[in-house]
C-alpha cells in the first residue's frame, strides 16, 4: 500500500515500484476519490486524514481486504500516525520510530532536538520568544503544509500562535536536498544530494552535486546516531555564500525527488522493498551525475462518463 497518491511523493513511489524488477500489486490511498495517481494503482481507496480518529481503522480494513504486506507512507502525518499504531496494524509500516518521526514532524521540535545534540539547524524560536534580533526571518507552520502558510519577514510575528507556528532565521543561498537511507539496524546506508529549483514547494529542476558529500555524511551520521531513523528520509538545507550548510527541515519519509534520484543510482524505494518486503540487504548505491527537469503530462480516460468511473489502473487510460 502506498498512501498519499495525490502528491508527487506517492506518485513517484508508485512509478518506482512499477519500474522495479519485482511483481507487486499496488494499493493506493488518498483523502479524495480521484487524483493523477489513481491510474498507477491496481486498487484505490479513499481514507480519512491521518490525524482523524477513524484513520487507522480504515487502513486496517484495507489491509485485511487486499492482503497488504507492507505500507509505504508518503506524507509526514501518515508516517507518524502509522508508526504510532504499528502494533495495531495487520502489516509492517516502512517508517522511522514514532519518537523520531514525531520530532521531525514538528519543525520547532526538530530545531530543539538538533540544538541539544549539537547538530546544525537554522536558529528557530516560538513567536512569543522571538526578540526581533535577526536580520531576516520566516514564520512558518510547525507541522506539514509544504510551502503553504509561510510569511517572509512579517512585522507582526508576535500575533502568530506558539502552538501552530515558529520563527526561523532566513538564510540566503543555494538550496540543496539530501536524501538518505537508514537500515533496520540503524546504519546509514547511503545518501545523495541535489541542488534544486522549486515552484510552490515542489522541485522543478535539479542536478546531482558531490562537493558537500563528506560534510553531509558527517552530519547524517550524527543524526542517525542520535535518533531511531528507519528507511528513507531527507534533509533540506541552504548553502550560504560563505559555504556554511544550514539544514532547516528534516522529513522522515521518502521525498518527492524519489522518481528522479532512482535514475541517478540512489534507489531508496527499491531499498525499502528489499529490506521491508523481501527481507534482503539493500543494494549498494551507485551515484551518477545528471540533471533533471519536470514536465506536465496528461492522463486521459476516453469514454469515461465521470471521475467515479476511473478509480484505479484497471480503467483504460492514455498518457499524452
Walkthrough of the structure:
The protein has 320 residues and is an alpha+beta fold. It is built from 8 helices and 14 strands. It folds into 2 domains: 8-105 and 172-319, 2-Layer Sandwich (D-amino Acid Aminotransferase, Chain A, domain 1), CATH 3.30.470; 123-169, no CATH class. The protein has a 6-stranded antiparallel beta sheet. A 4-stranded antiparallel beta sheet has the order 3-6-4-5, covered by helices on one side. Strands 1-2 form a two-stranded parallel sheet. The radius of gyration is 20 Å and the shape is globular. The two termini are 27 Å apart. The model has no long low-confidence stretch (mean pLDDT 94).
Main beta sheet, described? Answer: 6 strands, antiparallel
Number of helices: 8
Structural class: alpha+beta
CATH architecture of the largest domain: 2-Layer Sandwich
Order of helices and strands: HEEHHHHEEEEEEEHEEHHEEE
Q: CATH homologous superfamily of the largest domain? A: ATP-grasp fold, B domain
Q: If you average the pLDDT, what whole number results? A: 94
Could you provide a short overview of the structure?
The chain is an alpha+beta fold and 320 residues long. It has helices at residues 8-19, 55-66, 76-84, 98-105, 107-116, 213-226, 258-261, 268-277; strands spanning 27-30, 43-46, 124-125, 137-141, 151-152, 165-169, 174-182, 188-199, 202-209, 231-239, 245-251, 291-293, 299-300, 318-319. The chain folds into 2 domains: 8-105 and 172-319, D-amino Acid Aminotransferase, Chain A, domain 1 (2-Layer Sandwich), CATH 3.30.470.20; 123-169, no CATH class.
Amino acid at each position: 500500500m502506498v498512501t498519499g497518491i495525490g502528491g508527487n511523493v506517492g506518485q513517484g513511489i508508485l512509478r518506482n515500484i512499477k519500474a522495479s524488477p519485482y511483481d507487486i500489486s499496488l494499493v493506493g490511498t488518498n483523502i479524495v476519490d480521484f487524483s493523477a495517481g489513481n491510474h498507477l494503482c491496481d486498487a484505490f481507496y479513499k481514507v480519512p486524514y491521518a490525524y482523524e480518529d477513524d484513520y487507522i481503522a480504515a487502513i486496517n480494513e484495507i489491509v485485511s481486504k487486499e492482503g497488504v504486506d507492507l505500507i509505504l507512507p508518503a506524507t509526514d502525518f501518515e508516517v507518524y500516525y502509522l508508526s504510532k499504531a504499528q502494533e495495531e496494524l495487520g502489516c509492517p509500516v516502512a517508517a522511522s520510530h514514532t519518537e523520531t518521526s514525531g520530532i521531525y514532524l514538528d519543525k520547532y521540535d526538530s530545531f530543539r532536538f538538533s540544538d541539544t545534540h549539537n547538530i546544525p539547524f537554522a536558529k528557530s524560536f516560538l513567536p512569543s520568544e522571538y526578540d526581533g534580533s535577526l536580520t531576516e526571518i520566516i514564520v512558518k507552520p510547525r507541522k506539514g503544509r509544504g510551502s503553504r502558510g509561510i510569511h517572509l519577514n512579517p512585522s507582526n510575528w508576535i500575533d502568530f500562535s506558539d502552538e501552530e507556528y515558529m520563527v526561523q532565521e532566513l538564510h540566503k543561498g543555494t538550496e540543496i536536498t539530501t536524501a538518505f537511507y537508514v537500515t533496520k539496524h540503524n546504519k546509514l546506508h547511503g545518501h545523495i544530494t541535489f541542488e534544486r529549483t522549486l515552484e510552490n514547494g515542489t522541485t522543478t529542476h535539479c542536478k546531482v552535486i558531490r562537493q558537500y558529500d563528506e560534510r553531509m555524511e558527517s552530519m547524517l551520521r550524527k543524526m542517525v546516531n542520535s535518533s531511531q531513523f528507519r528507511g528513507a528520509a531527507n534533509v533540506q538545507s541552504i548553502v550560504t555564500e560563505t559555504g556554511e550548510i544550514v539544514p532547516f527541515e528534516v522529513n522522515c519519509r521518502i521525498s518527492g525527488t524519489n522518481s528522479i534520484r532512482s535514475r541517478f543510482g540512489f534507489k531508496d524505494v527499491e531499498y525499502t522493498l528489499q529490506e521491508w518486503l523481501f527481507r534482503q540487504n539493500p543494494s549498494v548505491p551507485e551515484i551518477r551525475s545528471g540533471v533533471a527537469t519536470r514536465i506536465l503530462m496528461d492522463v486521459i480516460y476516453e469514454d469515461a462518463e465521470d471521475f467515479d468511473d476511473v478509480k484505479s489502473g484497471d480503467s483504460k487510460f492514455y498518457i499524452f
